[in-house]
Design brief:
With 343 residues, this protein is an alpha/beta fold. The chain has 15 helices and 6 strands. Helix 3 (88-105) packs across helix 4.
């Protein structure tokens, strides 16, 4: 997965590099900076940091990670929020860009970021999140690196704005608790009445039922040859046919789907590849499919959308709105504590 969003203490995240929202001077006092020093080993990290000296706002420098589960710590100095008219947003953007360049220089395959400057420096979290995701989105268009955005707790991450209010309303209006559906017991399922007899009984009883009652399934006899003939194209065949029809490249698709190149190569080389639902949905979004097209695409992998699934409703909402940006969708899924899209 190119971009992950997780809730954790960044000092416990395993990655090639961990970003520290640092003090400009070689010292530490409070906040996440102090937590990084404590976890890495205060004296050793401070000695390494003194060799670097002062770091300007927006710049980055590297030390060993010492006792952290990483190879390197990338120290960057974020801006103090002064109302937004003092270049703070551009300074914060430079922090993320500088860190990614450092990660490249040290040949890192993965890097974990906090939301820089949103602690004691007071940068508004929604603005900081927007800046971080814009930088990550642009970077991942041409680079292959795993970026992990680490959020400490729910208070550190709360989505706002009309878009997310609309999502909540859509879920509230369309969510169906699956426990509301009645499943027939074996005595009903094995009822030997004919369909006509059942219809007559249903007319007499359903009007008085307190809960909706489902008609039992009466299987129709079919030949095996007919069933096999209706199978049609596989998930893999459907995927690459649609890529060709839309004129997309493989790279465009797997990056828009938040998938790794390795996984996508596996899908292309394996005609019988069976994806996880998460992966299939991500590819449907990357292909910009309509809701009906998405349902057909998922069915070829053996999946369906359910009105009792918050995950399915969120994805359906964005498809209906014509919003296919996987970063926006993943933020919403993360907010609702649903699995995010990607491999």
């Amino acid at each position: 997965m190119a971009l992950q969003i997780i809730r954790n203490d960044i000092t416990k995240v395993t990655a090639d590099a961990v970003v520290n929202s640092a003090n400009p001077l070689p010292r530490y006092a409070a906040g996440s900076d102090a937590a990084v020093y404590k976890a890495a080993g205060r004296l050793r990290l401070l000695a390494a940091r003194k060799k670097i000296g002062t770091i300007a706002v927006g710049d980055a420098a590297v030390t060993s990670a010492f006792s952290l589960p990483a190879k390197y710590i990338i120290h960057t100095v974020g801006p103090i929020w002064r109302g937004g008219d003092s270049g703070e947003q551009e300074d914060l953007r430079r922090c993320y860009v500088s860190c990614l360049r450092m990660a490249e220089r040290y040949e890192c395959d993965s890097v974990a970021f906090p939301l820089i400057s949103t602690g004691i420096y007071g940068f508004p979290k929604p603005k900081a999140l927007e800046i971080a995701l814009t930088v990550f989105r642009n970077y991942l268009q041409y680079a292959d690196m795993e970026i992990i955005l680490v959020v400490f707790d729910r208070e550190s991450f709360a989505l706002t704005g009309n878009l997310f209010s609309d999502v909540k309303s859509f879920i509230d209006e369309n969510y169906v608790d699956e426990s509301m559906f009645i499943t027939y017991n074996s005595s009903v399922a094995n009822d030997s009445m004919s369909a006509d007899e059942w219809t007559g009984r249903e007319d007499r009883t359903n009007l008085l039922a307190a809960e909706p009652v489902a008609r039992p399934y009466i299987p129709k006899k079919r030949r095996l040859e007919d069933v096999v003939a209706e199978v049609g194209e596989s998930f893999q065949q459907s995927l690459f046919r649609r890529i060709d029809e839309k004129g997309y490249t493989d790279t465009e698709v797997y990056k828009r789907a938040n998938l790794s190149r390795k996984l996508f190569s596996k899908i292309r080389s394996n005609p019988s590849y069976q994806p996880k639902k998460n992966t299939a949905v991500a590819l449907a979004l990357a292909l910009r499919l309509s809701l009906d097209e998405t349902k057909d695409f998922l069915a070829r992998a053996g999946y369906a959308f359910s009105p009792g699934s918050v995950f399915d409703l969120i994805v359906s909402y964005f498809i209906e709105q014509g919003v296919y940006d996987i970063y926006t969708i993943n933020l919403t899924l993360f907010e609702y504590e649903q699995p995010i899209l990607g491999d």
